Amino acid sequence: MARKVSTQRKWVATIAAWAIAFVIFFPILYTIITSFKTESEAIAGISLIPSGTLENYFEVQSQRDYFKPFMNSVVISVGSTLIALLIAIPSAWSMAFSPTKRTKDVLMWMLSTKMMPAVGVLVPMYLLFRDTGLLDTRLGLTIVLTLINLPIVIWMLYTYFREIPGEILEAARMDGASLFNEIVYVLTPMAVPGIASTLLLNIILAWNEAFWSIRLSAANAAPLTAFIASFSSPQGLFWAKLSAASTLAIAPILIMGWFSQRQLVRGLTFGAVK
Amino acid sequence: MATRQTRTLARLMMAPSVILLFIWMIVPLAMTLWFSFQNYNLLNPANVSFAGLFNYKFFITDPAFIQSIWNTLVIVVGVLLITVIGGIALALLLDQPIFGQGIVRILIISPFFVMPPVAALVWKNMIMHPGYGVLADINKFFGLRPVDWFAQYPLLSIIIIVAWQWLPFATLIVLTALQSLDEEQKEAAEMDGANFVNRFWYLTLPHLARAITVVILIQTIFLLGVYAEILVTTNGGPGYATTNLAFLIYRTALLGYDIGGASAGGVIAVILANIVAIFLMRAVGRNLDK
């Protein structure tokens, strides 16, 4: 039974929550607002009403070729996520449905590879990439991001697969379904929601990854993280343009994120909090 | 029961992921370890020789090393304090019945989805800038001198930015745990006359223990490696004021071209992270048993 709450108390909580939410969201809101200002408006003091110019968006494209890093981000984050899924689905499937004594150890070990600090292997990765010509290529970044996110992908899929009742698979097997059919016609339809949220969360993580994507890319393969970071060198007044570029860079992922709140908790805590 | 055939198949299906992760774990780490015992400078790549423990000695006795360890700790602890306490408080608030809860949740979770370079540059230029930032405008409105955040409080500025990014994560996880708290238990405690403080201390907090542990451990892993936020705001300065271990290694390797020294730093970073990781694995492992 829900408790009866006094209207007064509800209003107090509402006002407090909205005030805090406004403060927390303010930097994002202000970035969006500033992107519609002219450069001189942008530094003229607080104003929540922009003149509504779209000039910055056009200039970010015409002067800095925004579309190129945007496409790099799309290709690298989607590409690495799809490859990771392709490798992870069979792996998570077999651990969820044919667990052995060592399954738990294998899972823990996979997770432990995620704990390795990136800087710890910056030097060899840089040298390997330089010597194999992978430096500043989409392929190189896709490979690295696939490997970084693979443990999370496997874990997320594993926690979802484990909730699928094994009896259904056994029934399918009794009816003579081959392993291939079992996966394609029985398991996959039940696993699609889990796979979808794994996909979503990992595109978000890959999109925002800001160590390898900055260090292993230059002009050619730079995704949005590296592109935005390049705005840090002072080159006159550019805040409105920076805001436009930032808004474009975070908008798609913000919207995806809003849809995957629940899965985010689950995925990032490896199923420890649901 | 799994037959032998399906067991073999299961192994085959796991093989690609296991092999890839094994290579990913072993090869770069072994190379780091190898380089850490070599005199190897990219400016003089023809002249490589065995260095013994020289690189470690060089890296550890560098005055920047102690400061970078200290800065790393301050960032981790500072951000954890803000996000854990703030996250619990916010989650308790959001757990109340409020109007427009869905929208409030969306607004509060949003910073987590902002890529680090954007977060850092927006804070640096539009919020904390001493001339044109929003905080400076507010100070001026009240007749106060604007604060030059990155010059006066560089490390605190970094902590604020990183905490802003992670507060949503802590809030969301604590809130999720809070919502699984048995409503009847709460009601029973209330009927027995337990006040808010007692209910929180004896009922809610123990229930949240695991969620808070997970938040602390996962954040620590990421916070040990804060990088992009430093790169685009202070570039490690002024001096070494905001250089953490990750940033020092990057500086040694790619700006100092010192492969041996940076590798020694890398090994140290791996060891530190592993100490933290052991605790995390235990916490997650316990959950897997259930």
Oligomerization status of the protein chains: heterodimer
Helix content of chain B: over 70%
The global form of chain B is globular
Determine the structural class of chain B based on helices, strands and strand pairing: mainly alpha
Biggest beta sheet attributes of chain B: 2 strands, antiparallel
> What is the helix/strand order of chain A?
HHHHHHHHHHHHH
- Measured by DSSP, the beta-strand proportion of chain A falls in under 5%
Please report the total strand number of chain A as a whole number. 0
Write down the CATH class of the largest domain in chain A.
Mainly Alpha
Q: Specify Rg of chain A, calculated over alpha carbons.
A: 23 Å
Structural class of chain A: mainly alpha
Global shape of chain A: globular
The topology string of helices and strands of chain B comes to HEEHHHHHHHHHHHH
| CATH-level-2 architecture of the largest domain in chain A | Orthogonal Bundle
CATH architecture of chain B: Orthogonal Bundle
Structurally, how many domains make up the residues of chain A? Answer: 2
Comma- or semicolon-separated keywords:
heterodimer; A: 274 residues; mainly alpha; MetI-like fold; 0% strand; B: 290 residues; two-stranded antiparallel ribbon; 2 strands; 74% helix; globular
Topology:
The complex is a heterodimer of chains A (274) and B (290).
Chain A: H1 7-35, H2 39-42, H3 55-64, H4 67-97, H5 103-114, H6 122-132, H7 138-161, H8 166-174, H9 179-208, H10 212-215, H11 224-229, H12 239-259, H13 261-268
Chain B: H1 4-35, E1 38-39, E2 49-50, H2 54-61, H3 63-94, H4 101-109, H5 116-127, H6 134-141, H7 149-152, H8 154-179, H9 183-191, H10 196-223, H11 228-233, H12 245-255, H13 259-289
Antiparallel strand pairs in B: 1-2
